[in-house]
Amino acid sequence: MTKDANRPRARGGEDGLGAPVGRRVVLGMLAAGAAGVAAAPFLQSAYDSTLGAAAQRDPTGLTGLLPGGGGFRYYSVTGSVPAKDEHTYRLTVDGLVRHRASYRLADLRRLPQTRLARDVQCVTGWRVPTTPFEGVRLSALLDAAGVRPEAKAVRFTCFDGSYSESLTLEQARRDDVLIALRMQDKPLGHAHGGPVRLYVAPMYFYKSAKWLSGITVTDHVQPGYWEHLGYDIDAWVGRSNGRDDAPTT
């Protein structure tokens, strides 16, 4: 007998590459993979809800460093934000207008809706490509209110009690500035600023104020929350805040 004949045979087969995988194992692996794919949307939704709720109660802002669904981050500048619904939500339009107004969710939904799909760009660097938003053009609400000749700007306030933003009147009348009711073809969730938020497509996302509750027409631009902390008032993507991001439109 040769020296090779005395060698023990490799376990699992003649090629010595390991035990063959049985049919049951393969089927089990496929079933587990399919279950994972089926459960992924529900797990992501649960993760997003948990992270969004945590962000609204996080005074440190550290939860904003964690990735959310689709690459979004969740930010709140207050410790908590009350939820609004069909019965409790109101959006007021006032200031230098001829006709003050108060809109319920049902009122806003009855108005003509515009859908935009643009990249969302945060000044901190992350971008979510081709994100659909749908809602009422801000210009339509301004026209209905009857803006007075001395008006120069629009100020936005939020029901978190702290956040604010501003646009010039010319910026506010752009076709790509919405009072958004839907995002990613679903009703705007609370964590994303729902039920209604501002959406300023060509500017960094901090201009798109969440939890919108007030639109006030003014005679000058009033710096918003982040502008008081050094951010640019005119926040065009790619042309402000010292960044060179590609424009979103």
Automatic annotation (TrEMBL):
Membrane-spanning segments: 21-43
Pfam families: Oxidored_molyb
Keyword line: Membrane, Transmembrane, Transmembrane helix
The keyword Chaperone belongs to this UniProt entry's keyword annotation: no
Gene3D superfamilies (alphabetical): Oxidoreductase, molybdopterin-binding domain
Segments forming domain Oxidoreductase molybdopterin-binding: 79-226
Protein known as: Molybdopterin-dependent oxidoreductase
